[in-house]
Design goal:
about 90% helix
């Protein structure tokens, strides 16, 4: 497999992971908003922490994808 094809496949997988992460984060934030005051405080804190971690994962995936795109541009 040529290097350019490999990079395109990696970018494709990163797009999928990126989209799933965003959908998961939006769903979790929506749940946190809807269940505000209805669930235990510990569950709300844990949900907020996970949402925060997913945001960092989204930023990290985005940086990796842009590095791959720049690498693809150099070929």
């Amino acid at each position: 497999m040529a290097r350019i094809d490999k990079l395109k496949e990696e970018i494709g997988w990163l797009k999928i992971i990126f989209a799933i992460s965003i959908a998961t984060d939006i769903s979790l934030i929506a749940w946190l908003i809807q269940s505000y005051g209805k669930v235990r405080l510990l569950l709300s804190i844990l949900g907020s922490l996970v949402a925060f971690l997913i945001v960092f994962a989204i930023v990290w995936i985005n940086k990796i994808a842009y590095r791959k795109i720049d690498e693809l541009e150099d070929l």
